UniProtKB/TrEMBL annotation:
GO terms for molecular function: electron transfer activity; heme binding; metal ion binding. It comes from Jhaorihella thermophila. Keywords: Electron transport, Heme, Iron, Metal-binding, Repeat, Transport, WD repeat. SMART domains: WD40. WD repeats lie at residues 32-62, 70-99, 144-185. Residues 321-423 form the Cytochrome c domain. It comes from the Bacteria. It holds the Pfam family WD40. InterPro entries: Cyt_c-like_dom, Cyt_c-like_dom_sf, Cyt_c_1A/1B, WD40/YVTN_repeat-like_dom_sf, WD40_PAC1, WD40_repeat_dom_sf, WD40_rpt. This is Cytochrome c.
């Protein structure tokens, strides 16, 4: 079920739009809804279509607010890019895929954390410690070795001849794209480098790090040009407007800072989420709108420079004030991946609707691992309790459900009592 903005949201937006009317048209401020988990990456195509990467393991490709869904990754999708007109995604499942076909463009030995692209060539940063260069014309790929730990980010120089990478080893490195050779270590920051964004003319390089550092350096010498480090960490997202005049920075505490790259002043700085980090940022082609993703399953887009009031992303489900311990555990530990409605809602796991008495691996709209599909388990109070007493990885070896245990028997009993009530098919309630 794909939904447009639900009524409450629409009412809030309408109120805001009316307050700003006639300076803003309704289309300036929009949300893209339909993912079943946090939005972790955003890319804008030359023709303005928007691609979204999600924790729910799918890629969305949006024409207006009408999505096409690309399923094929076996774990969270971490990033998306357009290489010319070709859409490429990266995932925790170690692969890069081409869409709409879903064919594997490349495979790493660890999570693929980020992508960069120029027409005909995609670069990947992987936690296997290498950078991948993957030509789209069938030429042989290259793997670049040099980082001493996982690589978090990659960026091409504007002429496409050089590639910059940053990683958990705290270094920022420069590579020769044609040969794949490392040219030099530009900087040793000490803390992990999460994001790199070069100027449109290549004259500066901005980077964001785990310790909250946001700096602009000279790529030739590594010399510090500007420092925008605030007391917020880690830096998780950065985006440059197409005209190069605005640089947006998102962090783990949910703030977005927008910099003017001519005067090097902060033009906006606001808390964009009620809870959780800003994971993804991208500018629209005309540079007016900033698209943002975080813990909420929607992508938000705002004409940030023009807004009188700082916009906010909505927080996902919160337990109601009257929630008991079981509901709190479900909301806090399960709801990010599981719905309780008949439809699985594109979350990372299957709906738990009608769970008790059901055979494992049988929700029709969900693709299970072989381990769960063949487990022969029937979900009862005992088997659900055992699943979290032992942990999914030991109760069903090979499952996709991440390692997690609920060791306190009273907590397991409360969770099961809540699930009994909340998963019962409607006619039984
Ligand atoms: C990070 C995502 C994630 C979280 C958090 C999570 N699950 Fe899961 N869960 C999954 C995935 C993915 C599967 C499917 C596993 C497979 O196919 O191997 C699954 C499967 C299940 C199943 C089997 C369903 C079936 O149809 O056979 C149950 C039961 C379950 N989860 C309960 C829970 C409960 C209860 C919690 C909270 C305590 C929870 N899960 C938290 C991802 C998650």
């Amino acid at each position: 079920m794909r939904r447009r903005s639900p009524p409450s949201e629409t009412v809030r937006l309408a109120a805001l739009i009316l307050a700003l009317w006639p300076s803003l048209a309704a289309a300036d401020f929009f949300t893209l809804k339909g993912h079943g988990g946090p939005v972790t990456g955003i890319a804008v195509a030359p023709d303005e279509r928007i691609a979204t990467a999600s924790f729910d393991t799918s890629v969305g490709l949006w024409t207006g607010d009408d999505p096409r869904w690309f399923d094929g990754h076996e774990a969270a999708v971490t990033d998306v890019v357009f290489a010319g007109g070709t859409l490429v995604s990266a995932s925790d499942d170690f692969t890069l895929r081409l869409w709409p076909e879903g064919t594997v463009l490349g495979r790493h030995g660890g999570k693929v954390a980020a992508l960069a692209a120029i027409p005909g060539l995609v670069a990947s940063a992987s936690w296997d410690g290498t950078v991948g260069l993957w030509p789209l014309d069938g030429r042989a790929p290259k793997r670049l070795h040099g980082h001493e730990d996982g690589v978090n980010t990659v960026a091409f120089s504007p002429d496409g001849r050089r590639l910059w990478s940053g990683g958990k080893d705290g270094t920022l490195r420069e590579w020769d794209v044609a040969t794949g050779a490392q040219r030099r270590v530009i900087l040793r920051h000490g803390f992990g480098i999460n994001r790199i964004v070069p100027a449109r003319d290549g004259r500066w390089l901005a980077y964001g790090a785990v310790d909250g550092v946001t700096r602009v350096i000279d790529p030739e010498t590594g010399a510090l040009l500007h420092d925008f480090t605030l007391d917020r960490r880690p830096i998780l997202a950065m985006a440059l407007a197409p005209d190069g005049r605005r640089l947006a920075v998102g962090d783990g505490q949910g703030y977005i800072m927008v910099l003017d790259t001519e005067t090097w002043r902060i033009v906006r700085d606001f808390r964009a989420t009620l809870k959780g980090p800003v994971w993804a940022l991208a500018y629209s082609r005309d540079g007016r709108n900033l698209h943002a993703g975080g813990l909420d399953s929607a992508m938000y887009s705002w004409p940030v420079d023009e807004l009188a009031e700082a916009p906010k992303m909505v927080t996902p489900a919160r337990a109601s004030a009257t929630a008991d311990n079981g509901e709190r555990i479900f909301v806090g530990r399960c709801s990010i991946c599981h719905t309780l409605t008949p439809d699985s809602g594109r979350r990372a796991g299957p709906t738990l609707h009608g769970l008790f008495g059901r055979r494992a691996g049988t929700v029709a709209d969900y693709r299970y691992s072989v381990a769960v599909a063949r487990s022969g388990i029937v979900w009862t109070e005992e088997s659900v309790s055992a699943l979290f007493d032992e942990g999914p990885d030991s109760y069903i070896p090979g499952t996709k459900m991440p390692t997690q245990r609920i060791t306190n028997p009273a907590d397991r009993a409360d969770l099961i009592a809540y699930l009994r009530r909340a998963t019962a098919p409607t006619e039984d309630r």
